[in-house]
Amino acid sequence: MYDVVIVGRGLTGLLSAIWSKKFAEKVAVVAQGTGKVVQSTGLFDITPGNEETENPFIKTDVAEKAVAKFKELMKQLDYPYQGSLEKPVPVVTGAGFVKYTTLYPETITPVPSTGHVVIVGFEEIADFQPAYVKGNLQTERPELNIDTIKVRLGEKSLRTLTQNDAARLLDRKEIRNGVIKQIKSQMAEKNIEQPRLFIFPASLGIANWREAVQDFHEALGTPVTEAPGMPPNATAIRLEEKLTKEAIRLGIRFYLDTEVTGSTIEDNKVVSLTIKNNSKVNTLKGANFIIAGGGVLGGGLTVTAKGLKDSILGLDVDEFGRYKVCPENVIPAGATLGTKMLKFGITGGIFSIQSGYESCLKLEESLAGGIIHA
Ligand SMILES: Cc1cc2nc3c(=O)[nH]c(=O)nc-3n(C[C@H](O)[C@H](O)[C@H](O)COP(=O)(O)OP(=O)(O)OC[C@H]3O[C@@H](n4cnc5c(N)ncnc54)[C@H](O)[C@@H]3O)c2cc1C
To answer: Distance between CA 259 and CA 9 in Å, rounded?
Structure first.
């Protein structure tokens, strides 16, 4: 029997798992698939709530503590995040738009309003076109002087690559050197002056991102930034891989490709989950459960003709997808807290961080003999 079983391995579930390991000995994660974090930008700015529901969470002490804890964790995992809830900074997206973001990895440099920047694209990547990025960025930043360059990742590459493929290629020094050589020669040919920033797609290495950023910065003599856009973005893939590796290192048990299809409840407590893997049905026992199923987009809620349906525990939910009666040992997290938490249909990374942190506070209280207040 586990001290805690976490359903979902998105940002909320992974953070809950890692943080709960501080005080829970036996921790398991059950998930039928990856979380939305792999499709995201890996930059966190969206905060929960909408026009009707003023956001009751952000800029509270809890959110700040959670963000500080997240930054501490990511520093320890060698993929540090910068930024703060107080001061969002402008960054350029893969489409050339400027957005303000609160938390971003070290591969990102805020975009200036003036001066000269060079956008570098790769022939093999179809969804990052420097000329298109330039058009949008120029509209958003009329005083910027923008040049564009397109280079090849490999001399003989024939196929279209994703940004993730490109990132894995750029983990290799010889590929980086080839790219740097082409950038320098095109700058000389086209008489492009030294810019104050080079803008790349979000693909500056995965495992060797630090060396990649350093090599480009040093060889080109100017800061570089990634511009996250169409998934998969290396900015997000690194985050997901780092968190998953850390959870494995901590000894957390993963039940992958495993769907939770229901639960057994006694005296208002969940005693076990019904889990299904490869059409094999089993039960999984736990003393506590953190449910981080991601709502409708994550799969935790299903939209039916009769309204929302809980597809994890099989409990009755209200019109906002919240449990009508939450079992005593269940901690809903992320979008499981209901659709009032959504903006653009998602909760946003900041809320995942805060919710993961809060879940662990509740879990600690429960393991110490208290009652969980959902
Ligand atoms: C394309 C895209 C771009 C984004 N960009 C940004 C951005 O720029 N800034 C920002 O702040 N946020 C962004 N986000 C949002 C952010 O990534 C999400 O809000 C956050 O990752 C949600 O995490 P979560 O863990 O709560 O849910 P999810 O990531 O949805 O995870 C849910 C987990 O539950 C599992 N699950 C569900 N039901 C079951 C079941 N019955 N049995 C077993 N497992 C189950 C799923 O398999 C999954 O592992 C973006 C999201 C998307 C999709």
So the answer is: 12
